[in-house]
Amino acid sequence: MEPLLVRVARREPAERTPVWFMRQAGRSLPEYRAIRERHSFWEVAHTPELCAEVTLQPVRRHGVDAAVMFADIMTPVLGMGLAVDLVEGVGPVIAEPVRTLADVERLHLPDPEEAFAPLLEAIRIVRGELAPEEAVVGFCGGPFTVAGYLVEGRPSREFATVKTLMYAQPNVWRALMDKLADCFGAYVAAQARAGADVIQLFDSWVGALSPADYEEFVAPWSARILAAVDVPTIHFGTGTSTLLPAMARAGGDVIGLDWRIPLDEGWTLVGDDRGVQGNLDPTLLFAPWERLESEARAILARAAGRPGHIFNLGHGVLPRTDPDQISRLAQLIQSLPSTE
Questions:
Q1: Is 72 an active-site residue?
Q2: Considering 11, 23, 224, 274, which one is annotated as catalytic?
Q3: Nearest to 208 by CA among 234, 182, 239
Q4: Residue of higher predicted confidence among 102 and 87
Q5: Of 134, 141, 198, 236, which shows the fewest CB atoms inside 10 Å?
Q6: The predicted structure's pLDDT at residue 155
Q7: With respect to CATH, is domain 4-335 assigned 3.20.20.210?
Q8: pLDDT band at 186 (very low <50, low <70, confident <90, very high)
Q9: Is 156 helix (H, G, I), strand (E, B) or coil?
Q10: What is the three-class DSSP state of 198?
Q11: Over 60: is that where the pLDDT of 340 sits?
C-alpha cells in the first residue's frame, strides 16, 4: 500500500483528502517543549532518535496523514561549512555573509550520506514507525530563501542586499545558486533514498520577486533541485500569487498555495496537470471553531473533489497554536469526502 499523500500527489483517485500541517512538529506541542528544556535545537536535529521522536509527535497527537521531518532549512548549509546561529525571535543569523565569488568558492559540497547521516537515520526510524498509508515528508529550503539568509546575514523583508547582488553581480549570484542547487539536489535525493515518500521545496520568501526576476534568478535552480528525486515533490512559497505559473513550469507534482489566493483560482494558474496543497490561513487556528470549520469546508468546496488536493495551511503552524484545535481540524478533514 502506498501512502495516501503519495497517491494524491500523483493525482490518482483517492477516498478522501490527505491532511498534514507545515511546522506541525515543534513549538506548538508541549511534548516538544519538554524535550527542548533538556536539549538545544541542533542537539535534537542531529540526534536521530530525538529527531525521529519530535517528527512523530504530531502524527501520534493529531492523527495527520504525514510526518514532516524535523530539520531546519539551514541544515544543508551547515554541511557546506558555514556557521549558522538560530537566534530565538530573529531566525537564522550568518556571522560571515556570502557576498563575493571568493565567499561562494569557500562553500564546499558535502557527501550527503556523511554530512546528513543523523537526519537520514531519523528518516529510516520514522519510516519504520509509521503505518504504510502514512507518508514521510522530507524537505529542503528553496534556493532563493536560503540564499537570502546567506547574503543578507539574517532575515530580511526587503531583500535589498540580495537583489543588489542579483542585479549588479549576476555571476556571483549564479555561482551561489549553482552551489546551492548541487548541494540541495544531493540532499533531497539522499532523503528519498533513506525513505522519504515526498519531498517539499520550501521557498518561503520567493514572493519578494517579480515574475521576470523569478524566471531569471531562481527558476532554473529550483527546477534542478526538484528534478533530483523520483518521489513526488511539492513546490511551495508564500506571497506567490503572481509566480504560480512560473513555479509550476519550474517543477513540482504539487504546487503549494498560501492563503492570499482562493484555492480554485490558484489551481487555475497552476494548471490542471498539477496538484495543489493548501491553503488555510494559519491564524484561523486561533478563531472560534465555527469560523475555522467554515473556512476549512470552503477550501474543500473550492477543490471540488478534483484529484490532487492536499489539505494544509498556507504557511506553518504558529507557535502559540492550541494543539487541540489542530487535532480537531485534522479529524474534520479526514471525516469528509473529498467532494465536500
A1: yes
A2: 23
A3: 239
A4: 102
A5: 134
A6: 84
A7: yes
A8: very high
A9: coil
A10: strand
A11: no
